[in-house]
Design brief:
five-stranded parallel β-sheet, 16 helices, 19 strands
Length: 488
């Protein structure tokens, strides 16, 4: 009788679920241990009365990475998971009354920019082309392979990446690249905000992060028909069909190591043995609590945390026709806002506010004539600040800002409410300091200092937003692909 190899996945975040699917397809008997009572990590959902809310990520790009998991298992993705293509990537609101919709149709986007900002749109067109160029020259090398293996740097793809280095904006900041390439301060501000997609500061992060706009404007933005939580639900269904066993309310206390090889995990005092362990826990608490006998990599442990978020969930007893799915209400003091996040550890007096209205595409998310709002303000990671005080202050600023720009009394329309802050994010997802994306990318070498997807312990691998290639749904899915392709 052949012995079926066993694999254990620590954490049922999106990278952990994807890893379990890939391992099951490889023939492993897979068990997933999750400390919460639900799967998905940040990518979960909840209800407040008649309102439903996606708790975490609200932007969906590169849907092919989700579809790939179903295809890998010889399943038709459309039998499990469906999504819309968004007609508008985002709506931008400015304090001076400027309203700028960023259409997913590039020709319409360029026309709108010329009409509304009264400028030549050619620099914007060229900027989007540069973003595509960076994506195409770096995707395989930096996103789809390990940066910590010699084989990556001996591949034929690396030649194209090396040849492109002078044009990858590595040696300038994201903000300086945007300022040089764009011809209007509002456009610079819009493209600077893409640094927040991995919790970084555009005034410090390298210009290569201008790869991010291509995901929205070159490939597209999408939204699952059942909301963002539909991603989690569909992948858990697939995993269970493949024989993966999920154990909820099961906190892993220790990764068991015998000699220099992983042997399994300890859960509530009970040993669970396995040939392979994939850790989807944030790498910093993993070394501190699960691998206390293993020397942690100094560079990784010392990396600056990414930004966190103050999130409000509001059930609004009215509708706002002018708000589409994604909306950004900009700060007039954008540079000071990032300084507050990364230098002072405080909060800005005039935050940029992100409003996501899921019920525009999922009518069941709110009663008829009402809307479910997800409001996010970028804030520092948790360093012991008085978050209760900050939350009250930020909430008031958000209410005032939205009421002012939308010319409606927002506070009187909030019917139900909840929130997340860095402390709650850390408690619920074990994210170090409540950082949303692990480490920031405020250094051109940051990608190389991220923890690799393998470890010095044989049979132990790492996935998720705190390791290579980074945070966010697409990169977490890629981390699972990179790690499991190392497993025979």
């Amino acid at each position: 009788m052949n012995h079926q190899r066993k694999a254990i996945v620590i954490g049922a975040g999106i990278a952990g679920i994807a890893s379990s699917i890939r391992l099951a397809v490889k023939g492993y008997k897979v068990s997933v241990f999750e400390s919460n009572s639900y799967p998905g990590g940040k990518l979960t959902a909840f209800n407040l009365g008649p309102y439903r809310f996606d708790a975490g990520p609200s932007l969906f790009t590169l849907p092919d990475l989700v579809d790939e998991l179903f295809v890998l298992a010889n399943k038709d993705p459309r039998n499990y998971f469906n999504y819309y293509t968004s007609k508008t990537a985002c709506h931008y609101f400015f304090e001076d009354g400027t309203f700028l919709p960023f259409s997913s149709d590039q020709d319409k986007l360029l026309q709108d920019v010329e009409r509304i900002l009264e400028i030549d749109s050619t620099p914007l067109k060229n900027h989007l082309e540069r973003s595509r160029y960076i994506f195409e020259k770096t995707r395989t090398t930096f996103l789809e392979r390990s940066l910590h293996q010699t084989s990556t740097f001996l591949s034929k793809e690396i030649l194209a990446t090396v040849a492109a280095i002078p044009n990858l904006q590595i040696f300038t900041t994201m903000h300086k690249a945007n300022e040089k390439g764009l011809n209007h301060p509002k456009l610079v501000q819009i493209f600077d905000r893409y640094a927040t997609y991995n919790g970084s500061d555009p005034y410090k992060a390298p210009g290569i992060l201008n790869i991010i706009p291509h995901l929205e404007h070159g490939i597209g933005t999408f939204f699952p028909t059942e909301g963002m939580h539909g991603i989690t639900k569909s992948l858990v269904n697939l995993a269970e069909e493949l024989g993966v066993r999920f154990h909820f309310d099961s906190k892993v206390n220790e990764i068991i190591i015998t000699g220099k090889k992983v042997a399994g995990v300890k859960v509530n005092g009970v040993d669970h043995l396995a040939d392979t362990v994939v850790c989807n826990s944030d790498v910093k608490p993993a070394y501190k609590h699960l691998l206390s006998r293993v020397k942690a990599p100094k560079k990784t442990m010392e990396q600056e945390p990414s930004s966190s978020a103050m999130i409000f969930y509001w059930g609004m007893k009215d509708s706002f026709p002018e708000l589409d799915l994604h909306n950004i209400f900009f700060s007039e003091n954008y540079k000071e806002e990032f300084s507050a996040i990364f230098d002072k550890g405080e909060v800005s007096d005039d935050p940029t506010v992100y409003v996501h209205v899921s019920s525009k595409l999922v009518p069941e998310d709110a009663p008829n004539g009402c809307e479910s709002w997800f409001i996010l303000v970028n804030v520092p990671s948790n360093g012991g600040q008085n978050w209760e005080e900050f939350r009250i202050r930020i909430r008031e600023m958000v209410v005032q800002k939205l009421s002012r720009i939308l010319k409606r009394d927002i506070s009187s329309l909030i019917e139900v409410e909840d929130y997340l802050d860095p402390v709650r994010i850390e408690q619920r997802t074990s994210s170090h300091a409540g950082a949303l994306y692990g480490a920031s990318s405020n250094d051109r070498m940051a990608a190389f200092f991220r923890h690799p997807n393998f470890s010095k312990v044989k049979g132990l691998y790492f996935v998720g937003g705190s390791v290579h290639p980074g945070g966010g749904i697409p990169l977490c899915l890629l981390s699972a692909k990179i790690a499991t392709e190392m497993i025979s």
